[in-house]
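Entry 14. Ran structure prediction on the chain below.
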Amino acid sequence: MHATLPLMRHFGFPAIQRRRLETLQVNVGYRCNQTCVHCHVNAGPQRTEEMSRETLADVVAFIGMSSIRILDITGGAPELNAHFRELVVRARELGVHVIDRCNLTILEEPGQADLAEFLASRQVEVIASLPCYTEELVDRQRGKGVYDKSISALKRLNALGYGTDDQLILNLVYNPQGPTLPPAQDKLELDYKRVLGERFGIVFNRLYTLANMPIQRFGSTLISKGQFNEYMALLHRSHRADNLEGVMCRTLLSVDWQGYVYDCDFNQMLGLPLRLEGRRRPHLSDLIGRDLAGNPIAVRDHCYGCTAGQGSSCGGALAA
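Output, structure tokens:
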């Protein structure tokens, strides 16, 4: 049982609008082989929601008729969806760059022995969660033994050329351990590269620092510890207006496992649908032939998580 999260309209996040659509972020299901403390999806092994092949066909059709340049596949562990590989193949056939939001340990799971080779063969960019470069902190946040499996998975990806081949991009993701803002991204990236390189010979392209969103599992944890209001106040007072120009929701569209659409993955988890005239809960099929540029974005106070400090997005910090 999770604590009930308050309605987040206290501070009043600034109104913002969409630009030209570039990225389709598709959540293919909430099932995961891990149960991480910071997870804004509340994913885990017991979740059963999974995108069907029919909805996957809607996704592919939309890509083919739109200006989408990037397909960003997420979950849960997206690779656990039975149709994950088909989606990758069909998107790549359309000339779209594909990103896999990978938790690394999935590469060590039964039935996934050839997953790394599959991703490399399709030149899929891997964005992998590794919330610290030390075993103690990773296992504390993600579960005992996760660090060792993650290191093993990174070595497998490196052996295939990830991190060294220009066509095989490997980026890592850092999340704070608690209700704090991430440290400076560039400096932490240097620390990651030094430690992982010296200890394991691991290389990667970029480190993305992401703020923890006060929703779902992390939000419930904050409430149970009496830290929710304090964290929200931190996000609000750390807001930087110049980060509004780079927030991902301006050019990204989020799709849930049933094909319904949202301004971002965080709004998806809060049930805040894309604002579309004539549609209370728009589906991807409702958007065919529509230009979303200038469309108002649904905002609440959790949006300060993207504009606080150096900013935070699916592509890491927004400012130096």
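The chain has one domain: 23-307. Will compare against last week's run tomorrow.
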